[in-house]
Design brief:
- The chain has 306 residues and is of the alpha/beta class.
- Helices cover 35% and strands 15% of the residues.
- Helix 3 crosses helix 4.
- The mean pLDDT is 91.
Length: 306
Amino acid sequence: MRHLMSPLDFSVEELDQLLDLANDIEKHPEKYAHACDGKKLATLFYEPSTRTRLSFEAAMMNLGGNIFGFSSAASSSAAKGESVSDTIRMISCYADICAMRHPKEGAPMVASAVSSIPVINAGDGGHQHPTQTLTDLLTIRSLKGRLNHLVIGLCGDLKFGRTVHSLVRALARYENVTFVFISPEELKIPSYIKEDVLESSHIPYKEVERIEDVMPVLDILYMTRVQRERFFNEEDYVRLKNFYILNNKKMKLAKEDMIVMHPLPRVNEISVEVDKDPRAAYFRQVQYGVYVRMALILTLLEVKVC
């Protein structure tokens, strides 16, 4: 039995197999419509989510399976003081696989240590968001045709952004990838990412504050929102929330085949006028998220479809 706590839980070869399966699901959805008949997915979401929770639910329903769970800690026995360990032991009696989101870093790992069913980390605090990373990798590979030889700009909240941290770790394993970190001083990428992931492997990166300075060289621009829920005080959030706003004027500086990605939800960091640009890929990203979660569920449940 396997769990998914981090994108690094899969080797590069296993990731390629997973993405190949997701692409086949996209092309032949009818082939997989009953692959999980009789199987049940539990979605244990201790903090709010729209895309991730509904994407998991859509994925399991597309596979013919059933879903149940809760969408906030307040609507579960956690409100009575039940531990994560006890919750997952109980859920293991009901479900075949579980997706867990929790505000505390490491909570899904704690659950996986005692669970008798596969546990998927659907986001733990500011730490990891592996299924978003799988979504991002599938989006990049599908739209750019490769996961190597890329210049990737990551813009916005790079300090607290778990999607950014997970994506950097995953893409660092591919050949000739260069990272450009675009952020204000207060939201810079953590030093442990730079030192432990990039510098230790001699992977090139640069840090800038102005998005306009690097737009012409980017193959991918990955925008993120400034996350209100990660700030300790409202004053800092208000000061930084509109630091970057991508609009059509800035898009004119970019390559014709650059793609814009965003893990969503969007607040003000991408103007709605950019939505009409063919390089805007963030809503296609959402659809790829369903395919890759379908592939992940099949992989962890060891379901083979001929």
